[in-house]
Design a protein that fits this description.
Blueprint lengths: L1 E5 L8 H12 L4 E8 L8 H26 L7 E8 L2 H11 L2 E7 L13 H9 L4 E4 L11 E5 L4 H16 L3 E9 L12 H27 L7 E8 L2 H6 L7 E5 L15 H8 L4 E3 L7
Parallel strand pairs: 1-2, 1-4, 2-3, 4-5, 6-7, 6-9, 7-8, 9-10
Antiparallel strand pairs: 5-10
Helix pairs in contact: 3-4
């Protein structure tokens, strides 16, 4: 098992390697930084030009791997290595490397347009999230820490996928000696500008969401206790807000935190998680986020 890192030297952002090394401190596995360079077409009509292009790409790859190795050398306690591969698609090449190297997690950085400490998905990252068969960890821009993973927060919705995810993350938190926090995010509709208040029917629906969420969290507590997650190592929380930013940032976050989430359209709290809710949670997350396969964010 390994942590495979998508390394892009021209981004001037070491956050992906930093996150992979953080994960490796808590759950030791080798870290492999992979740089992907363009692959030549190999056409017989432009053999000379294509050979020159491949030589240039190989030089770029070697330089990138050297930079990645230097970044990894700043973590001498981590078993790290750097390689480069040629491919016509960066996401596909990373997915192939993840499969080849039996990756436990595929780690990538945020887009260049992300604010410091925040996450933005690039088109390439978005494809990875929707195509990967292993979890994809996304580092906030500029992520850097000397800590391992000390607390894992699960975004919990009380659907089949969430229950499966909860059990899986509970096992991981135990292995990593990290605390586990189960959070249900509830976004309340904004007040109407004309009436300056929500209707009675809307209020009843909102209250029902809260009752359902509280019941689901109580059931989650019982389940986690039954598999040995108890005491100070377990926390449950409800995070409410008038928008996703308020709900996500309203939760206390600290260095060493990691958030795990997925997305599904079939659950009792569907009204809370319609459309691109998962991507909105990612956008406002101030900590690294791991998205589990089979729960693509839409």
């Amino acid at each position: 098992m390994t942590y495979v890192v998508g390394y892009a030297p021209h981004k001037h952002d070491r956050s992906a390697i930093e996150l992979a090394c953080q994960l490796a401190k808590s759950l030791p596995q080798p870290v492999v930084a992979v740089s992907v360079v363009p692959r030549g077409w190999g056409t017989p009509f432009a053999a000379g030009t294509d050979r020159e292009y491949e030589q240039w790409a190989a030089g770029e790859g070697a330089d990138s791997a050297a930079l990645a190795a230097a970044d990894l050398a700043q973590h001498p306690d981590i078993d790290g290595s750097a390689v480069w591969v040629a491919g016509r698609s960066v996401p596909q090449a990373l997915l192939e490397e993840a499969a080849k190297r039996d990756a436990e997690i595929l780690v990538v950085a945020s887009g260049d347009d992300a604010e410091p400490g925040r996450i933005r998905l690039t088109p390439k990252t978005d494809r990875l999230v929707h195509s990967s068969t292993v979890p994809v960890a996304i580092a906030p821009r500029g992520h850097n820490t000397s800590n391992g993973v000390t607390r894992i927060t699960v975004a919990f919705r009380d659907d089949d996928a969430s229950w499966s995810l909860l059990t899986r993350v509970a096992e991981i938190s135990t292995r990593a000696s990290a605390r586990l926090r189960v959070v249900t995010f509830l976004v309340r509709p904004s007040r109407r500008p004309v009436t300056s208040a929500v209707s009675h029917a809307e209020t009843q629906v909102i209250d029902l969401w809260g009752v359902q969420a509280a019941s689901a969290q109580a059931a989650a507590m019982v389940h986690l206790n039954s598999i040995g997650v108890t005491g100070d190592g377990l926390e449950l929380a409800m995070a409410e807000g008038s928008d996703w930013g308020e709900a996500v940032t309203g939760v206390e976050w600290a260095d060493g935190d990691l958030m795990v989430l997925g997305s599904s359209s079939t659950h009792r709290l569907a009204q809370v998680f319609l459309g691109s809710s998962a991507s909105k949670i990612v956008r406002h997350a101030p900590v690294p986020v791991v998205i589990v396969p089979g729960t693509a964010i839409g």
